[in-house]
Amino acid sequence: MLGEDETAAIDLSVGFFAAVLVAFIFAAFSAAPDAPPVPVTSIGQTAETVEVLPATWSPVRERGGFAIVSGGIVTMLDLGALAREIVAAPPGTAGGEDGHASFHAGQGAAPNEFAVNLVFTPGALPAAWVREVTPLGAGAPCPGSVRRLLTAWVDQREPSIAPLLSWASACRIRLRVEVLPAAAESGRVSRAIALDAGSFAAQRIFR
Amino acid sequence: MTDIFIAATSSLIMALAVSRPHEPVRLPIQADLVSFCPRAGQAAFLVVAADAVTRSAPRTVAAADAADLARAVGLLGLPDRPFYTIALASTPSRPPGPRCLREFQRDLVDRHNRDVIEPDAPPDARMIFTVTPVAVSLDFGE
Q1: What is the pLDDT of residues A68-120, one digit of tens each?
Q2: ipTM of the predicted structure?
Q3: B63-67 long-range CB contacts below 8 Å, 24 or more apart?
Q4: Superkingdom of the source (chain B) (predicted)?
Q5: Minimal CA–CA distance to A162: which of B92, B110, B50?
């Protein structure tokens, strides 16, 4: 049975031990060098944080769509129609007057490489290729047929890509912007949907 | 006495936790670097660390070629990493044009990523950059 004095002594020793412990903690805190502040999103932020996708070294296992942006208008390509055109025409031959598609497979170093070559005028696409047309601007509607991953080929003569970017972020589309090369004298541009050794070098398949 | 001590300690810790200075940090872009197109008639892109971009006068680096871009990481004090993501944003005086994106991608990012695998590349510049244009318009005191 402990007496009055022993209880007080235990209280005192526990209190003293705790005091020393807290003093150590404070000393350790004040002696630690200031770490660089980690930026965190705060609830005071009015705009939603835009996340930039980091590089990964694995190809995306998801099908995406293709669109052409010219004159402030997004034109989704109907890849099914393109495929039918390719199947109908012999390989390497031109199709219509205003654009053509051709298919090459397994001709390079890798047996699984392929290229669908498209030749077109950015402002005037063949009617069969067009799946959906969306004019950009404030309150532009989200397309119904588009996939979540979209590769947008932007005409060099577009004044700004900002309307395209805000449209894509409003519609939750993961966009990959590729700027078309300058058009030839005929106004035509050639572009390939391809998987080859160059796709890895140009990071085409890493998102 | 133990009761008093514990109550006092906990209230002290709470007071310290509440009075810790943490101002709201705005983070409009989650990336490593934010880059801006050149002004009209100029050639150099502007590179800013992404977590400094909302400060009133962030540290900026002008980058005109791939070597400048690799140097910017060190100059802006970013930690060493194998990959850096770059967001191409805009300011009112630096609008995002398609040609600017193409130039940035081809002449800076892709050039650097190609040079970095060469055997004579400097060992402190062996990082890979990726660039993504973002729909964010910022206005910091340039």
Answers
A1: 999 889 999 888 888 887 777 665 554 445 566 777 666 666 666 777 778 88
A2: 0.71
A3: B63/B35, B63/B108, B65/B107, B65/B108, B65/B111, B66/B107, B66/B108, B66/B109, B66/B111, B66/B112, B66/B115, B67/B112, B67/B125
A4: Bacteria
A5: B92
3-class secondary structure per residue, A175-207: EEEEECCCCCCCCCEEEEEEECHHHHHCCCCCC
**Is A68 part of the contact surface with chain B (CB cutoff 8 Å)?**
no
Q: How many CB pairs under 8 A join A and B?
A: 112
Average pLDDT for A131-139: 86
The answer to the question of residue A96 being in a domain is: yes
Which tokens hold the place of B110?
A: 């892709």
Question: Does a structural domain hold residue A34?
Answer: no
Q: Which tokens in the block code for residue A83?
A: 């495929």
What total of structural domains would you count in chain A? 1
Region of A77 on the Ramachandran plot (φ > 0 left; ψ -120 to 50 alpha; else beta): beta
Burial B63-78 (b: 16+ CB within 10 A, else e): beebebbbbbbeebeb
Considering only the beta carbons, identify the residue of B2, B25, B105 that sits closest to A40.
Answer: B25
Structural domain for A181, as ranges? 65-201
Model confidence pTM above 0.90: no
For residue B101, give the nearest of A156, A74, A198 by alpha carbon: A156
Q: What is the largest CA-CA distance in chain B?
A: 75
Search chain A and give the residue with CA nearest B94: A160
The CA distance from A47 to the nearest CA of chain B, in Å, is: 7
Closest to A59 (Cα-Cα) out of A163, A182, A203: A203
The alpha carbon of B2 is separated from its chain's Cα centroid by a whole number of angstroms, namely 50
pLDDT in tens, B57-105: 788 899 998 888 888 988 998 888 888 889 999 888 888 888 899 999 8
